[in-house]
Design brief:
Strand order of the largest sheet: 1-2
Helix content: 55-70%
Number of helices: 5
Pfam families: S_100
Number of domains: 1
CATH architecture: Orthogonal Bundle
Oligomer: single chain
Distance between the termini: 51 Å
Organism: Phoxinus phoxinus (Eurasian minnow)
Keywords: Calcium, Metal-binding, Repeat
Number of strands: 2
GO molecular function: calcium ion binding; calcium-dependent protein binding; transition metal ion binding
Protein name: Protein S100
Shape: globular
Radius of gyration: 18 Å
């Protein structure tokens, strides 16, 4: 990634770089600088994914996300676990988009 700048990078490369930067923006504020603690995860969910996840203020919701992501049960979310979250949300958004698009096409077909 050295030497990669936004001007020369592809859209996907920029997206990857943004994921890395976003993770490290929140990791290491407390404890291990390469993982997200429960509080760091909550802050990241609220600030970065609020439009997709709704109210991340709900402690039970944050605990559920943490439990689902923390595959090695160390009480923290590492970068791999973070990527799984972003990937799963991206798949869900794509599924929603496809479903919405199909409904929209059916409406258009009925009008013709």
């Amino acid at each position: 990634m050295s030497g990669l700048n936004s001007e020369n990078a592809s859209t996907l490369e920029n997206a990857m770089q943004l994921m890395i930067q976003t993770f490290h923006k929140y990791s290491g504020n407390e404890g291990d600088k390469y993982t997200l603690s429960r509080q760091e995860l909550k802050e990241m969910l609220t600030q970065e994914l609020g439009n997709y996840l709704g109210n991340a203020q709900d402690k039970d919701a944050v605990d559920k996300v943490m439990g689902d992501l923390d595959s090695n049960n160390d009480g923290e979310v590492d970068f791999t676990e973070f990527v799984i979250l972003v990937g799963a949300l991206t798949v869900a958004c794509n599924d929603f988009f496809l479903e919405y698009h199909e409904k929209d096409e059916k409406k258009s077909d009925k009008k013709e």
